[in-house]
């Protein structure tokens, strides 16, 4: 956690008078050429600004002896003695590297960039210019705004990425940012001086956005700059650990948001506890109904195939599926969500939505099983369990919000 007493996080008078910019350059490949080398970044900065570059080598355990040589920090330019390139080593993940870089920086402005991604040369001056013009903004290099250009990625990985961004935007209420997981962003030092970083995972920007937005003393907006990445980009493999770590980060930030609200609004604590209990109660009912649907499906299919002569087993199974979906819908409407509007038009609309979302859940399950097995090489048995869990949770949340018109987190 960043020390709140650290001088580097204090917006003092000396820093305010300075126009120095600190670039925190992250890499986990110290023995390979970086797409964004420190000297390349230095030459891309506006000449009128004083600057420093802190190259943070994260995930740096168990390296060879060449690593220490790679960390040697060259001396600054003799014509600009205040400009320097510093190399440091951090054992943690990306966010830990960002935190360490901020701790070591002294500039009024801070630019964070993943050195292992091939951003275009003009993104740095664009970010810096936008930041200086808008010092109370967080400037984000975005992949998802107009005029952005990135290499196309596989369909499954793209779908998982959209889901992750959707969770960040709506689950963590970061709705004003289209790319909350960007690895290239800039901000003024005073924007973060009153917040604490846990910095345990990879989502540094997401943590800053959540904690800044929960700080009532900050009035910070976000400006997104369209990103342009070279076509030489090799898509990073999306493995199970990446998904798991992202889920942990989101959960911790969600808990932080809840805790922050409880601390600032104690009068509503009883109501929030009640909402949490109500949410868990409805989730329990929904999954209980789902379990009963499996029984209805099996019994109906078996009895129909046994009692009706000459019926094809596929037809019997299809009947069991339809009957189980119908029973699930009725039980969820009456028992789980306690919806008492039984007008034919309303019920029919809800049933169609329920059926459509059940179909979507099946698609999500199949897609995740395929992604886990083919791309992450997770055993099928484990992949199936993970996919069923994700599909079931999404099915509950989507039906709660869309079919029965309730707020998700209540």
Description of the structure:
- This protein is an alpha/beta fold and 410 residues long.
- It has two domains: 7-264, Spore Coat Polysaccharide Biosynthesis Protein SpsA, Chain A (Alpha-Beta Complex); 266-403, no CATH class.
- It contains 13 helices and seven strands.
- The chain has helices at residues 13-17, 38-44, 66-70, 94-104, 123-133, 155-171, 189-192, 204-213, 240-264, 269-307, 313-336, 344-374, 380-403; strands spanning 21-27, 51-57, 84-89, 109-114, 137-142, 184-188, 221-226.
- A seven-stranded mixed sheet has the order 3-2-1-4-6-5-7, sandwiched between helices.
- Strand 2, helix 3 and strand 3 (84-89) form a beta-alpha-beta unit.
- Helix 10 packs antiparallel against helix 11 and helix 12 (344-374) packs antiparallel against helix 13.
- The longest helix has 39 residues, at 269-307.
- The chain is elongated and about 85 Å long.
Structure keywords:
410 residues, alpha/beta, Spore Coat Polysaccharide Biosynthesis Protein SpsA, Chain A, seven-stranded mixed sheet, 13 helices, 7 strands, 52% helix, 10% strand
């Amino acid at each position: 956690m960043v020390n709140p007493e650290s001088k580097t996080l204090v917006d003092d008078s000396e820093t305010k008078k300075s126009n120095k910019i600190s670039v925190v350059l992250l890499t986990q490949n110290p023995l390979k050429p970086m797409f964004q080398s420190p000297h390349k970044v230095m030459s891309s900065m506006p000449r009128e600004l004083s600057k420093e570059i802190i190259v943070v080598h994260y995930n740096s355990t168990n390296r060879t002896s060449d690593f220490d040589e790679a960390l040697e920090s060259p001396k600054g330019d003799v014509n600009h003695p205040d400009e320097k390139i510093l190399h440091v080593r951090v054992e943690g993940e990306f966010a830990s590297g960002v935190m360490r870089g901020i701790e070591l920086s002294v500039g009024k402005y801070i630019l964070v960039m993943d050195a292992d991604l091939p951003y275009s040369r003009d993104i740095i001056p664009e970010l810096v210019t936008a930041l200086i013009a808008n010092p109370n903004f967080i400037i984000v290099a975005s992949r998802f705004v107009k005029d952005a250009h990135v290499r196309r990625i596989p369909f499954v990985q793209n779908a998982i990425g959209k889901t992750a961004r959707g969770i960040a935007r709506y689950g963590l209420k970061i709705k004003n940012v289209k790319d909350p997981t960007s690895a290239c962003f800039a901000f003024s030092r005073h924007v973060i001086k009153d917040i604490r970083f846990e910095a345990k995972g990879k989502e540094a920007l997401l943590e800053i956005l959540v904690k800044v937005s929960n700080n009532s003393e900050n009035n910070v907006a976000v400006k997104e700059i369209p990103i342009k990445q070279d076509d030489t980009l090799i898509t990073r493999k999306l493995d199970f650990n990446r998904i798991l770590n992202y889920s942990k980060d989101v959960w911790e930030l969600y808990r932080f948001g809840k805790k922050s609200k409880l601390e600032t609004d104690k009068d509503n604590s009883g109501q929030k506890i009640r909402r949490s209990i109500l949410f868990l109660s409805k989730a329990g009912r929904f999954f209980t109904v789902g379990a009963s649907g499996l029984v209805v499906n099996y019994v109906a299919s078996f009895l129909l195939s046994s009692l009706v002569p000459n019926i094809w087993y596929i037809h019997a199974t299809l009947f069991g599926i339809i009957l189980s979906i119908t029973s699930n819908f009725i039980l969820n409407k009456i028992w789980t969500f306690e919806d008492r509007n039984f007008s034919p038009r309303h019920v029919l609309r809800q049933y169609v939505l329920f059926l459509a979302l059940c179909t979507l859940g099946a698609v999500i399950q199949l897609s995740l099983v395929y992604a886990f097995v083919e791309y992450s090489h997770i055993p099928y048995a484990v992949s199936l369990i993970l996919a069923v869990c994700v599909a079931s949770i999404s099915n509950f949340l989507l039906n709660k919000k869309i079919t029965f018109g309730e707020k998700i987190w209540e």
